[in-house]
Amino acid sequence: MLALAAVLLLAAAGCTSSGGHDGDRSAAPSGRASGARWQPRPGVAWQWQLSGTVDTSVDVPVYDIDGFENGAAAVARLHADGRKVVCYVNAGAWESFRPDAKDFPAALLGRGDGWDGERWLDVRALDRLRPLMAARFDMCRAKGFDAVEPDLLDGYANTTGFPLTAADQLAYNRMIAGLARDRGLAVGLKNDLDQVPQLLGDFDFSVDEQCAQYGECERLSPFVAAGKPVFHVEYELAPAEFCPAVRKLGFSSMRKHLALDAWREPC
């Protein structure tokens, strides 16, 4: 209990009520030794921007940006300012607009996932998806990223066009985590709250959308208890509606536009 209290105290220090400057440098993740995987701590502030030119002026220690749309120079600029940088890639759905789209076998493409140009992947096909995801993570590593955010790791809980089971998803998610860690990259579990107990040991942090709106945030508390951050956003709730509760849980939380542009309103 004392250890958990210390973690939550640290997390509370990482959130402020300011709308523009919440990057306490004392909470910044420390640099990693050569060959060591970055291991972020609860409460560290972050920026998540997947659309538009990345605004590097937000004073936070962690940036999460699109891995395909940003090159090594963008990562280097953020590193020069003392930031750690997370590489966003889609691991659960095919995207028609990515340069490697033609490499995905048509048989692995399922129903649309609700976003233009995207279709769920048949994650049971580990042998065929492994080299494709490995290539994406190699790209992240080559550009200098510190971590990866593999999106859509909960296909089994959606209407994908494939009879995916929880066991199928666990096997795939563990493969994804292993590919990242084998390359010295930290890796985040995106959503997939039902499998947090089984996957906690495989992932270094969580990225969650709208757990407050759906009354699910408590289910992510094992990450904080294990000394791992929960990077959390809400789109529809005002900060006053969710920040008090998530501060108590030790989350790194903010409100964002659904387009995930540069705008943010942190807790």
TrEMBL record:
Residues 16-39 are annotated as: Disordered. Residues 26-37 have a biased composition (Low complexity). InterPro entries: Aldolase_TIM, GH, GH114_TIM-barrel. Transmembrane segments: none annotated. Pfam families: Glyco_hydro_114. Residues 46-263 form the Glycoside-hydrolase family GH114 TIM-barrel domain. This is Glyco_hydro_114 domain-containing protein. It comes from Actinacidiphila cocklensis.
